[in-house]
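Support case: zinc ion complex. Customer-provided input:
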Amino acid sequence: MMDLVEIEVKKSKKKIIIISIVATLVAALFLVLGFIFINQSQSVSKQKEEKLLAKEKQEHIIREKNKIIYNDSVKQKIKKIYNYDGKRVFLTFDDGPSKSVTPFILDLLKQENIKATFFTLGSRVELYPEIVKRAYEEGHYIANHGYSHIYKQIYCSAQTVLEEYQKTEQAIQQALGNTEFHSHLFRFPGGSKGGKYDAIKQEAISLLDANQVTYVDWNALTADSAGMKTKEEMLEYVKSTIGNKKSVVILMHDAGDKILTYETLPELIKYLKEQGYEFQNIYDIMNEVE
Ligand SMILES: [Zn+2]
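Agent response - structure generated as follows:
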């Protein structure tokens, strides 16, 4: 017969064995869990890496596609912007960038996956270079609207038009951190024809052309610079100027006070989509396959 001491020893030995087994199991479990966790986080970071690579690749393709090409053929195509077989629309914004309007327009265009054309003012580009850079990086065409927008200053002579163009190009280059950038595209403040400064404008067209710069006006407008009071009024006006045109260049503004333009834009985009227009920007003309 075992004495009591022997039984106690046996019991505690059993206890130790059970505890060791449990401890080993728990440790093994932790080890397995830890392994799974590390593996998973590794695959998550790998996925992230792959996503980033895909994004970079895509951006690169977009950048490649959005190449600024300027030659006679492109110049002719821009001159004939209103001749087109299909239905297309160019959303163009003048007088920006501004802090209170441009970023919101950019957000909306991003959401709608629409690329527009911005005729920037050099003096504004210097104030908000980061907004210009953002617009550029998001695939919008950055074009040139002169520096001062003061008619008697810019239209002093053909030479002053060219000088304002060049000063603005420099401001854009600085904003983009790219001294190779050349928009080759100007929009005359107030349009290329008519008015008090018509003779100087016509002279400037030749001078710009000799400097590898062409220009574009518009054939539709929201009249957002002419005191429209409501969204409805603006929408009706722009619709009436679009009419049955097949290739539409809409003039709008993204200056700081053009909140109504931004507010009207979603409905205008909806209307243009319903009418079957394809949204294009100047890159599409430049990169068109002939
Ligand atoms: Zn303007």
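The pocket of zinc ion is lined by residues 94-95, 145, 149, 189 (CB under 6 Å).

Case will auto-close in a few days if no follow-up is received.
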